[in-house]
Amino acid sequence: MIVDVHTHIPTHMDTIPSDDIKEDTQMRPGERVRLSTNVDDYLAGMETVDTAFVFGIRRRPTDEDSPVFPWKGDVNDTAAKVVSRAPDKIIGFMSVHPDEADVLQEIERCVDQLGLRGIKLGPNYQDFDPKSENAFKVYDRAQALGLPIVFHQGTSPYPQSPLRYAHPLVMDEIAMAFPELRVVMAHIAHPWHVDCIAVIRKHPHVYADVSGALIRPLQAYNAFRLAYEWGVLHKFLFASDFPVTTPAETIEFLQNFNEFARQYHMPEVPTDELEAIIHRDSLSLLGLK
Ligand SMILES: [Zn+2]
Questions:
Q1: Rounded to whole angstroms, how far apart are CA atoms 126 and 60?
Q2: How far is the CA of 204 from the centre of ligand 1 (A)?
Q3: Residue 224, phi then psi, degrees to nearest 5
Q4: What string of pLDDT tens digits covers the 289 residues of the chain?
Q5: Phi then psi dihedrals of residue 209, to 5 deg
Q6: What one-character-per-residue DSSP string does 239-262 give?
Q7: How far is the CA of 238 from the centre of ligand 1 (A)?
Q8: How far is ligand 1, taken at its centre, from the CA of residue 121, in Å?
Q9: What is the b/e burial string over 182-201, where b = at least 16 CB atoms within 10 angstroms of the residue's CB?
């Protein structure tokens, strides 16, 4: 069983008008990432996995048109529509903004009416303080309802996204306040993987997802080797950050991981532990079984 815990909703349901096509040149240095996808592209990308979590990121309440997000319309309605195209495979997550007045009602709507089963937050992208009173209300409700939260962690190329809102040490304080909350720290909090490892080692229900690691091989080597030395590779969850990378190339990266170590005469990471990441039962770990 392969579970991808981090994929993004398509920007379009069906045909993508040519003037709607958006590409990014910063996420994968030297490459172009096509951010515009439709549901068929998305499901084709997910062919190699058994289950995937899909989500958008909700805008700031005041943002009409955000340069950060390629999606139009309500990201939670879209997540539910994507799930309806492959309900046995795709698990929808909501995204909410803690500073919206009706945030708790929106969580209720997403659970009861849309069938969404977790929450995606990007405090830096959404520009909210992850330690604010409003944010804590969201964590409290998520913990009570058994909704895991995937947090964007680490850097982003957008100048208006505050880095301190996505620093992994902040998650330590959230996990202390909400010990039963299931948390996924995205991207091993790149480039702060050392801090991320310290946090997931300490908290039984806090995990890291490996999405995007393959883009920077030396950083990935350090993150995985360090996680092995600290005994936390079992807290790494399989993820792609589709469409930024695909599950297929993430599997290939994990299966060929030690070629990089051998090339530079560095100590390897046990291949069985790398293979175990691919088959990790994230549904059970996050309480979604
Ligand atoms: Zn992402």
A1: 5
A2: 23
A3: -70, -40
A4: 999 999 999 998 888 888 888 888 888 888 888 888 899 999 999 999 999 999 999 988 777 666 667 788 899 999 999 999 999 999 999 999 999 999 999 999 999 999 999 999 999 999 999 999 999 999 999 999 999 999 999 998 888 889 999 999 999 999 999 999 999 999 999 999 999 999 999 999 999 999 999 999 999 999 999 999 999 999 999 999 999 999 999 999 999 999 999 999 999 999 999 999 999 999 999 999 9
A5: -100, 150
A6: --TBTTS-HHHHHHHHHTHHHHHH
A7: 13
A8: 10
A9: bbbbbbbbbebbebbbebbe
Q: Quick one: DSSP state of residue 62?
A: T
CA–CA gap between residue 152 and residue 149 (Å, rounded): 10
User: For residue 18, what is the DSSP state?
Assistant: G
CA of 126 to the centre of ligand 1 (A): 13
Separation of 157 CA from ligand 1 center, angstroms? 13
What is the CA(95)–ligand 1 centre distance, in A? 12
| Tokens read off for 39 | 């549901």
- pTM for this entry: 0.95
Q: Which fold has domain 3-285?
A: TIM Barrel (3.20.20)
Q: How far is the CA of 104 from the centre of ligand 1 (A)?
A: 23
Residue 99 and residue 134 in contact, taking contact as beta carbons nearer than 8 Å: yes
Residue that the structure tokens 């092995």 belong to:
228
